[in-house]
Write a structure and sequence with these properties.
Elements lengths: L5 E6 L3 H12 L3 E7 L3 H11 L3 E2 L2 H5 L6 E4 L6 H10 L3 E4 L7 H14 L3 E3 L7 H12 L5 E9 L20 H4 L1 H12 L3 E9 L10 E8 L4 E7 L27 H7 L4 H11 L23 E6 L2 E5 L3 E6 L3 E5 L8 H13 L7 H20 L3 E2 L12
Parallel strand pairs: 1-2, 1-4, 2-3, 4-5, 5-6, 7-10
Antiparallel strand pairs: 7-11, 8-9, 8-15, 9-10, 11-12, 12-13, 13-14
C-alpha cells in the first residue's frame, strides 16, 4: 500500500530525466514538485507540463519546503556538490549513476547524507532491472551452488550519439567507463557478491574525433576468487542486442533498418557547438523533443547486454523475459513479470528508503565501490598493471 507520494524535485532536465520521466509520471508514489535546469526552454516546458515551479539553481530548488527529495541528473562532475547541497537542506537524494567521478567526492556525499540523516540512492542503473535482481535471488537460494565466473558483454552506438564537449573528456567524467561501465560493473558486482579484490583491464580510444575511452575489456577478481570478464564497445558497429533477440536496452523491439542512423545524424554536425545544439534540441524542452509515448504492449524488461553467471550446477542468464537457467538436466526460462511502470524497481528502493526508512541496496558505499572499479579500469589500462581495491562492500540492503 502506498502511504503517500514523495514530492520530488528534479535537478537537471536532460537525457537521464527523459529516460526516467515515464517512471515519474506513471508511478503514483512520486509527485513532481519542482525543477532546475540551465536551459530556460526546459524550465518553461516543465512548468507547463506539471504546473510546478522551476528555479535557476539547485540551492533554490532545495530551499522549496514543498520539495521533499531531489533527483540529481546533472552532469557527472556536478553530482557531488549537488548532492551535498540537497543533503544540507534536509532533502533525500536519488542521484544518477555514476555516483561521482572521484572517490573523494563519494566520501563527501556519504558524509553529507549521514550528517543530515537523509537517504541516498544511486540510480537508475541496470542492476535495478528485475531479471538481474531475480538472478541474484536465485544465487542466494543456493539451489545452483556458488558463483564461479561471470561474463558480461555489450556493444552499442554510445560513442556516435550527439555529445557535449565534456562528455568526450575523461577528466570530466566523459567516455564509456563512467557512463556505461557504471551499469555493467554494478550488475557484475551485484551478481558476484560485491567484493572485487583486483582489476586488470585495457581501454580502447580509437576515434580521434571522439578523444576519450570508447571501449574496454576488464577482468575482475573477487575476494572469494570468483572472476568476471567485462567487455563494452560503444563504436556502433556490431550491435549485441542481436544476442537479446533484437530487444533494445529500453526493452522495446529494435528497428534494424535504423542501423547506422546515429552515425549519419552525427555527420550533420560540423563542430562541437553544432553537436551540442543537436543534443539539446532532442532533450526535454528542445525543438526536436518527442514526449515519451505510453507503454507499448510489446514492452519487455530493460537490459544491458549479455550477462551469464556460471554457478557450480548451472549457468544463469538474465534476459528481457526473465532468467534462463541451464542446469544439469534442462534449459528453462524462469519468467519475471514486466512491471506496469518502467523502472519501477528504482522507485521501489527509493520509496522504501525515504518513507519506510529501509536501508537501500544501491546506497553511497555500494556505489562508491562500483566507481572504484571503474577508476581501476582506467588506471590499469594506463599503467598496464593489476589494481588492488580497498573500498569494496557487499550488498547490505535487502533485495526487493
Amino acid at each position: 500500500m502506498t502511504d503517500r507520494p514523495i514530492r520530488l524535485g528534479i535537478a537537471g532536465l536532460g537525457r537521464a530525466f527523459t529516460l526516467m520521466l515515464p517512471t515519474f509520471t506513471a508511478d503514483k508514489r512520486v509527485t513532481l514538485a519542482g525543477a532546475t535546469d540551465l536551459r530556460r526552454e526546459a524550465r518553461r516546458r516543465f512548468e507547463s507540463d506539471f504546473q510546478a515551479p522551476t528555479y535557476d539553481t539547485i540551492e533554490a530548488l532545495c530551499d522549496d519546503p514543498n520539495v521533499e527529495a531531489v533527483y540529481v541528473a546533472t552532469p557527472h562532475q556536478m553530482h557531488a556538490s549537488h548532492v551535498v547541497a540537497a543533503a544540507e537542506r534536509g532533502k533525500h537524494v536519488l542521484v544518477e549513476k555514476p555516483i561521482a567521478i572521484r572517490i573523494e567526492e563519494c566520501d563527501a556525499m556519504i558524509d553529507a547524507v549521514r550528517r543530515a540523516g537523509v537517504q541516498l540512492v544511486i540510480g537508475h542503473s541496470h542492476s535495478f532491472n528485475a531479471p538481474v535482481l531475480h538472478a541474484r535471488k536465485l544465487i542466494e537460494s543456493g539451489a545452483f551452488g556458488a558463483v564461479r565466473m561471470i561474463h558480461a558483454l555489450n556493444f552499442t552506438d554510445y560513442m556516435v550519439r550527439p555529445r557535449r564537449p565534456e562528455e568526450m573528456d575523461t577528466a570530466q567524467g566523459g567516455g564509456v567507463i563512467f557512463s556505461q561501465g557504471a551499469h555493467q560493473i554494478d550488475i557484475v558486482r551485484l551478481l558476484g557478491g560485491g567484493l572485487v579484490r583486483s582489476v586488470r583491464a585495457q581501454c580502447g580510444n580509437w576515434d580521434p574525433s571522439r578523444p576519450t575511452e570508447g571501449a574496454y575489456s576488464a577482468l575482475l577478481t573477487f575476494a572469494d576468487d570468483v572472476f568476471a570478464s567485462c567487455t563494452y564497445s560503444g563504436y556502433a558497429h556490431f550491435d549485441s542486442d542481436e544476442f537479446m533477440g533484437f530487444i533494445g536496452e529500453m526493452g522495446l523491439p529494435k528497428d534494424r533498418s535504423r542501423y547506422g542512423a546515429m552515425r549519419k545524424a552525427l555527420r550533420e554536425a560540423n563542430n562541437s557547438a553544432q553537436e551540442s545544439a543537436l543534443k539539446a534540441a532532442r532533450n526535454y524542452g528542445g525543438s526536436a523533443y518527442v514526449p515519451p509515448a505510453g507503454a507499448p504492449a510489446d514492452r519487455r524488461h530493460q537490459h544491458f547486454g549479455s550477462i551469464i553467471v556460471s554457478c557450480e550446477r548451472a549457468d544463469l542468464r538474465p534476459t528481457a523475459d526473465g532468467v534462463m537457467i541451464y542446469d544439469d538436466d534442462e534449459i528453462r526460462l524462469d519468467p519475471v513479470p514486466v512491471p506496469a511502470v518502467p523502472r519501477a524497481e528504482v522507485i521501489d528502493e527509493f520509496y522504501d528508503a525515504v518513507v519506510h526508512g529501509r536501508t537501500p541496496l544501491h546506497d553511497g558505499e555500494w556505489s562508491r565501490a562500483t566507481l572504484e572499479v571503474c577508476l581501476a579500469i582506467l588506471e590499469s589500462s594506463r599503467t598496464h598493471s593489476e589494481i588492488a581495491l580497498r573500498h569494496q562492500v557487499g550488498s547490505r540492503g535487502a533485495l526487493p
